[in-house]
Each structure stands twice: as structure tokens, then as C-alpha cells.
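Q: C-alpha cells for this one, please.
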Amino acid sequence: MNNQESQPIRNDLNISGISTTAGGVYRDVRIDGMAKVNGDLDCISLRINGTLGMKGSVKSEEITVNGMGTIDGPVEAAEIRIDGMFTLKGGVSCTGLDVNGKSKIEGRLQGDKINIGGEVTVKGDVQCEAFETEGNIKLDGLLNAETVDIRLHSLSTVREIGCERIDVRRIERGFWKNFSLMGGPRLKSEVIEGDDIFLEDTEAEMVRGTRVYIGRGCKIKRVEYKETLQTDGDALIGQSLQV
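A: Here is the predicted structure, written as C-alpha cells:
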């Protein structure tokens, strides 16, 4: 048996009305109506424009969400883009994740590049190479990344950050820069640890790094640094120590 013969036959699945179906192996899956899927789904692409309630796992090369819904099982994909409202109750493993809508991930999130422009809550740990956000994030676990870039225009919280480089800056938006329905621009964290650290508008119990800059609007209880510590005159630091 050659490799071509061993590949499963993949048909397309299109749901435009109200339908309940089992999972299966497909090429392209498109949800334009209201769909319930009871089982695991293995496909090349999954596009959700309507509403999906899924009891099972998803394995796909590409997932695009413009509608809303829930997936109960773990999700494994190359690229995931969420422009609608979606809840992922299992862990998520992907190459790239872009969220411009609203998403809740109840398990662990693992990827190469994560870009958040909307609103995201993650209950588990986040592991990636590059984490970038101009949105609103609430990460209850550890954010572990090589680089972290956070642009603040509202309140974001991350329990603990460990990285090589972190850059947190306030977004300047002219007259409206100090107004937001979700509060002023601020990052709250218990521990921030990295080699190169640049912070603005950040509240933390502990900041520990090699080269550290504590900028405007920061309130840090304790700073530990190896090589350099620079501070803005507007920053409040309880205790600093070179170690």
C-alpha cells in the first residue's frame, strides 16, 4: 500500500441551517448556521461564521472564527484566527494565534507566535516564542516566552511572566488616551523576570532582571537586578537590590 492509498478520503462538510452531526475526517468544514458536533473533528480547514457547539477535539491546519461557539476538547492547529466570540475548554497547541475578537481558553496555550488585539482570558499557562498584545489580557497562569511586547490602553493582568525580553508601554491615543471603559492603561503582575526589562504603568510585587528600566506610572514593591537599574522620576519602588 503506497502513501496516497493510505490517506483517508476527505470530503467537505458545509452546514448552513440547524444541524447535529458526528465528527469525522474532512477536507474543508464550514459552519454558516447553528451546528452541534458530537465527536472529534480532523480537517484541513475549519471556518465558523455561525454558531458551533462541539463535544470533542479538533485537529486542523487552519481555524477561522467569525461567529461564536464552544469547543470542549483540545485543539491542535497550525494557524488560528478568532474575530468572533469563542470558548476553548481544552488545551490549545498551534503555530500562530491571532485574536481580534473575544476568546476564553480554559486549558494551556502553546504556540510559536501569539498576537492579541482583542480580549483574551487564559486559565492555564501560556508558552510561546513571541507574545504581542495591544488588547486586553487576563492570564491566570505563567506567561513563558522569549519576547513579550505589551501595549497598554486598559487594565491587563498576568500572574507571572518569565522571558528573555519584555517591553511594556502605554499606547498614546491623543485626547482619548486616558479614557477607557476598562480602566486606565495598567499591567498588574505578581512576578516579572527576564534579562532585559522595560516597564511603564506596571504594578508588581517583584521585578527581577539583568538590565532593568522602571518607567513612568510603575509601582514595584521590590526590584532585583544584576547589571543596571534605571528609573523614571514618576516611578515608585519600595526596595531595590543589586544581586
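A few notes: The longest strand covers residues 136-152. The chain is about 0% helix and 70% strand.
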